[in-house]
Specification:
46% of the residues lie in helices and 11% in strands. By secondary structure, it is an alpha/beta fold. Strands 3-2-4-5-1-6-7-8-9 form a 9-stranded mixed sheet, with helices on both faces. Helix 1 (10-22) crosses helix 2 and helix 10 (213-226) crosses helix 11 (240-252). It comes from Desulfofundulus salinus.
Length: 461
């Protein structure tokens, strides 16, 4: 069997090059799609690069200018000489079709890139330099990198269509006064402060252990799913069945400890069954891989997007357990790679991504032990890449008499929005957060009763 030829379309390449010689507008259009590396033939790479350089220098792109440019580079004869350059426009029926042919050239380039990466991976497998896990990670990383390279909308865009899109968004919010621009968290005060979870945002929920960050992540995920959203939840510390058990407890408002030791009465068992029935039809998908890579997460979200046509929310609990998928010299750089990947995923799938994170131990040395944004400083680019940073603090964890049953959600960073904080109720038995003004009677029944530090007790509105 003869040697197979990689994917390519010489006719499309000639069509693009010939069209560029006929119209400067074509050069502008195809330069948004192609680079010289996308061409299969080496002579076509050199010709297209010369065309781009002439155009970017403000010089005319015609037969004479291109010929002189190639001659000055010493490659004119190598690319076929004046005769070949002059023949290129003969391949063009209409320059208006140049964009279509440019997309075909790009498509073939993508296929060649995929083949090259796969061939490299196959060679390493045959050489015995990879184990199974490394091979899977390499494959996922290759897919992620190729996907990043395929973005065609990262260049400059004229302001007019952007203004039209902005005005349309403002008008929609004007016509829907009182409606959240983002997804509801289920906590009214938090929604008022932030406008909800916005598409394309990376949202960081950070706290020291046992503050309730996992509970808040799970609660928000269920809230969005119960409202009709498609949600992907990546849980790295517990199995999927434990997550399911926890959201049953949250939904049914049951005593979690009693459930876990099997101490159920008739009412509790009925609550479990009712909650399970309510939750069984929601579009919440759980991945309990203990150390997923960003590429693995992206691949799973891509599958979900293909299945439902959208993904409304991605939750990653927690970021410290993620594997960057490649060797990085420091943990700070690892986290930087991970957060950049999560932010890119939020933009690419046009959905909010929530990532839970642990604050560093320096918080424990502070007098009040109340976290601040500075406690993220040693955590890579978490603060920089995040659009919204929420810090959780429950003072009763350190002093049982200090505001029992209350938690502060500190809005430490909000891109294009105010910072501050809100107080919510936290019912430890249900591992659930509540608005202070909402469900007051139900929350009050589950909260600690009046202590000696009465003036610090929770006051429900």
């Amino acid at each position: 069997m003869g040697k197979r030829v990689p994917p390519q379309s010489i006719d499309a390449e000639q069509y693009v090059l010939g069209s560029c010689l006929l119209s400067a507008e074509v050069v502008d259009a195809v330069s948004e799609i192609l680079t010289s590396d996308d061409f299969y033939r080496a002579d076509h790479k050199q010709i297209f690069q010369a065309i781009l350089d002439l155009y970017q220098a403000g010089k005319p792109v015609d037969l004479i200018s291109l010929t002189e440019e190639l001659r000055s580079r010493g490659v004119l004869d190598r690319v076929g000489g004046v005769t070949y350059i002059a023949s290129l426009p003969n391949h063009v029926e209409s320059p208006l079709l140049a964009r279509h042919h440019a997309e075909l050239v790009r498509e073939k380039a993508i296929l060649r890139a995929v083949l090259s990466r796969c061939h490299h991976l196959v060679e390493r497998i045959y050489a015995g330099t990879l184990d199974g896990k490394e091979a899977m990670q390499d494959l996922q990383r290759a897919a992620l990198e190729l996907s990043e390279q395929d973005k065609q909308n990262a260049g400059l865009q004229p302001i007019r269509p952007l203004l039209q899109g902005a005005v349309a968004g403002i008008e929609e919010r004007y016509r829907n006064k009182g409606k959240l621009p983002g997804l509801s968290t289920g906590l009214a005060d938090l929604d008022k402060f932030t406008g909800g979870l916005r598409k394309g945002d990376l949202i960081l929920i950070a706290a020291r252990p046992s503050m309730g960050k996992t509970s808040l992540c799970d609660q928000i995920a269920v809230e969005v799913a119960r409202s009709g959203g498609v949600v992907a939840l990546f849980t790295t510390e517990v199995r999927g069945t434990r997550v399911a058990e926890k959201i049953i407890i949250q939904t049914a408002r049951l005593n979690g400890h009693a459930i876990r030791i099997g101490y159920l009465g008739e009412n509790e068992w009925s609550g479990v069954c009712d909650a399970s029935a309510k939750l069984s039809s929601i579009k919440l998908y759980v991945d309990d891989h203990p150390h997923p890579t960003p590429a693995h997460i992206r691949a799973q979200v891509h599958k979900l997007n293909a299945k439902h046509g959208r993904v409304d929310l991605v939750v990653v609990d927690y970021i410290g357990q993620l594997d960057p998928g490649k060797k990085v010299d420091t943990r700070v750089r690892e986290l930087a790679e991970i957060t950049r990947s999560l932010k890119a995923m939020a933009k690419d799938f046009n959905c909010p991504v929530i990532a839970a994170s642990q604050l560093n131990r320096a918080v424990e040395a502070q007098g009040e032990k109340r976290p601040t944004l500075s406690d993220l400083r040693d955590s890579g680019d978490l603060e920089q890449d995040s659009d919204l940073v929420l810090l959780l603090w429950r003072p009763e964890f350190y002093n049982p008499l200090d505001r029992p049953g209350m938690a502060e959600i500190i809005i430490a960073k909000q891109r294009e929005g105010p910072t501050g904080s809100i107080w919510v109720a936290f019912v430890k038995e249900h591992t659930r957060f509540h608005d202070l003004a909402g469900e007051a009677g139900e929350v009050a029944d589950a909260l600690p009763k009046k202590s000696k530090a009465g003036k610090r007790n929770l006051k429900l509105v």
